[in-house]
Design brief:
Layout: H1 22-36, E1 46-48, H2 51-59, E2 78-84, E3 98-104, E4 109-113, H3 121-135, E5 140-143, H4 156-172, H5 192-223
Parallel strand pairs: 1-2, 4-5
Antiparallel strand pairs: 2-3, 3-4
Helix pairs in contact: 1-4, 1-5, 4-5
């Protein structure tokens, strides 16, 4: 569970007081995995949707109207979506719990990983339904009851981050073409404290890079 406070990821880190919130961890993890790993796999057609995009998808009556603003999924094999339990479309940063939905487009299956099972079962079903409409393809929802479970009320975002990383790096990107992949995360041990420190390190590195870019831009403008 988390307060769900929004964190502007790149330019606004300097003034943001919510470093380490679930939304920031999820956003940072997606960007990190895309830049550090997915770019090395030109044949991988995997999409990591941001929390804000997932929320918009669920709250939009007709998801087909979002095709202009969402990625083109025509060649996509898998889609990662953070799932939030917020029900009020007027509160984009609401909700108290995050889980992970991994849509295997090629198999027509949506795998749900909930560290407080079955807290997000309804939200996951709704998200899968919206994705099914968007893709024009039936999706079978598999709620994985053997997903690793958190021991407190504050680590859901951390669990989503580490599950996303392990599923991407340890399963999808390692598999040979056509190979069947077991998607269960049973017996996966998660050290939430260690993962949280890793996430904060990633965020801090992005913040520093943002500062370097701003300084470089400022210097270049000064030369004009």
């Amino acid at each position: 569970m988390t307060d769900g406070k929004s964190i502007a990821f790149w330019e606004e880190y300097d003034c943001c007081p919510y470093l380490g919130s679930a939304r920031a961890d999820l956003d940072a993890t997606a960007r990190y995995l895309e830049r550090e790993y997915l770019t090395q796999y030109s044949n991988a057609h995997i999409v990591l949707l941001r929390p804000s995009m997932s929320f918009m998808l669920v709250q939009t009556p007709d998801p087909l109207t979002l095709k202009e603003v969402l990625p083109n999924f025509s060649r996509t094999s898998h889609i990662f979506l953070p799932v939030n339990d917020c029900r009020n479309p007027a509160i984009a940063e609401g909700g108290s719990h995050w889980s992970l939905l991994l849509v295997s487009v090629v198999d027509g299956v949506a795998f749900h990983y909930d560290s407080l099972h079955p807290s997000n079962a309804t939200s996951a079903a709704l998200t899968a339904e919206k994705m099914s409409t968007l893709l024009g393809k039936k999706l079978v929802l598999k709620d994985l009851e053997d997903s690793p479970q958190q021991e407190n009320s504050s680590d859901c975002g951390v669990f989503v981050c580490i599950l996303m990383k392990h599923l991407l790096l340890g399963k999808l990107l390692k598999a040979a073409r056509g190979e069947k992949i077991g998607m269960s995360m049973a017996n996966k041990q998660i050290d939430a404290s260690k993962v949280r420190k890793e996430m904060l390190g990633i965020i801090e590195n992005f913040r520093r890079e943002g500062e370097r870019r701003r300084r470089r831009t400022k210097d270049e403008r000064g030369l004009d």
